[in-house]
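FAQ

Q: What does a record look like?
A: Structure on top, sequence underneath. For example:
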């Protein structure tokens, strides 16, 4: 049932759609993982990038600018080691996207 605005409340959608529940659960997992990830990064990289997604063996990081993305590329190996060792995620590659492009 829709309300006057034509949209259903998120809570109703969550109850009726297991796919939507999976999306919210994955988003929550990524949010918590990113908080822990930030605490493990070297001080020069904290808050420079955030985990946007994890797919198969690729960790997708999002940066605000090209300058930040370049900095992350320089620390590619260090970041992959943190992800593999501290979080036991079998990532082999980082993909960096810019916030302004999405």
């Amino acid at each position: 049932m829709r309300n006057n605005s034509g949209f259903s409340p998120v809570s109703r959608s969550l109850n009726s759609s297991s796919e939507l529940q999976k999306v919210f659960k994955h988003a929550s997992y990524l949010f918590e993982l990113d908080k822990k990830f930030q605490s493990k990064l070297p001080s020069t990289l904290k808050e420079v990038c955030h985990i946007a997604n994890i797919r198969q063996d690729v960790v997708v990081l999002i940066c605000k600018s090209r300058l930040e993305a370049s900095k992350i590329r320089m620390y590619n190996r260090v970041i992959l080691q943190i992800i593999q060792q501290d979080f036991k995620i079998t990532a082999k590659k980082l993909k960096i996207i810019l916030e302004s492009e999405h």
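Q: Is there anything notable about this one?
A: The domain at 10-101 is CATH 3.30.300.180 (GMP Synthetase; Chain A, domain 3).
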